[in-house]
Design a protein that fits this description.
Elements: H1 7-12, H2 14-31, H3 37-52, H4 54-61, H5 66-90, H6 99-119, H7 122-149, H8 155-181
Helix pairs in contact: 2-3, 4-5, 5-7, 5-8, 6-7, 7-8
C-alpha cells in the first residue's frame, strides 16, 4: 500500500512512469550478469511495478469491501502460484516445450487487451482477465520447470519470470473480483 496515497499522482504521470518501468526491465536484462547492480535494477523494477499498481489498488479500496477484494486476490494468487509450482515439480509432463505456443497466446491476450482499451467492453474485460489467470497459471508451471532445468541464464531471469507471473495473476484476479465482488 506504499503508493496508494500517491495514486492520483501516479495516474497523472502514467506514461512517463510506464516508460521508466519498461526501461528498468530492459536495463535489467542488460545488467543481469553484473552482480550487485543487477539486484539494484531488479529491486527498482519490482518497486516500480508495485508503484504502478497504486491506481488499481486505490480504485479497489474505494469499492465496498475493497480491502477484502485485495486480500482475497492476493490469497488466491498465492495459492495458484504455489499449487502450479508444486504441480510443475511433481508432474512427469514436460511443459517447457510449449514456450512458443504460450508466447503466441500471450501476444493474443495482449492484442485483445489493446483492442479493448478502445472498445471498453466489460464482457471482453472479464474474458481477458480470465484468460490472463489461466495463461499465467500455465506460465508458472513453464517457468518453474525452466528454473528446475537451469534453462535461465541467471537467477534474475527466473525470479523476474515468476514475479511477473504472480503480478499478472494478481492483477487479473483483482479485476475479476472487483467486477463480480462489488456490490455497487
Amino acid at each position: 500500500y506504499v503508493g496508494v496515497p500517491l495514486a492520483a499522482t501516479i495516474q497523472a504521470w502514467f506514461i512517463p512512469l510506464i516508460i521508466l518501468e519498461f526501461a528498468l526491465l530492459f536495463g535489467l536484462f542488460a545488467v543481469k550478469r553484473k552482480p550487485g547492480i543487477n539486484l539494484i535494477v531488479m529491486f527498482s523494477f519490482v518497486f516500480m511495478t508495485g508503484l504502478m499498481l497504486a491506481p488499481l489498488l486505490s480504485f479497489t479500496l474505494g469499492m465496498s469491501g475493497g480491502a477484502s477484494i485485495i486480500g482475497n486476490a492476493f490469497a488466491m494468487t498465492s495459492v495458484i502460484v504455489a499449487a502450479m509450482s508444486f504441480f510443475a515439480i511433481k508432474t512427469k509432463a514436460d511443459i517447457t516445450s510449449y514456450g512458443k505456443p504460450l508466447m503466441i497466446a500471450l501476444f493474443v491476450v495482449i492484442g485483445f487487451s489493446i483492442v479493448n482499451i478502445f472498445l471498453g467492453n466489460p464482457m471482453l474485460s472479464v474474458i481477458i482477465s480470465a484468460a490472463v489467470v489461466f495463461l499465467f497459471s500455465i506460465l508458472v508451471v513453464y517457468d518453474t520447470q525452466n528454473i528446475m532445468r537451469g534453462a535461465y541464464e541467471t537467477p534474475i531471469d527466473g525470479a523476474i519470470a515468476l514475479y511477473l507471473d504472480f503480478l499478472n495473476i494478481f492483477t487479473a484476479l483483482l479485476q475479476l473480483l472487483g467486477i463480480f465482488g462489488n456490490e455497487d
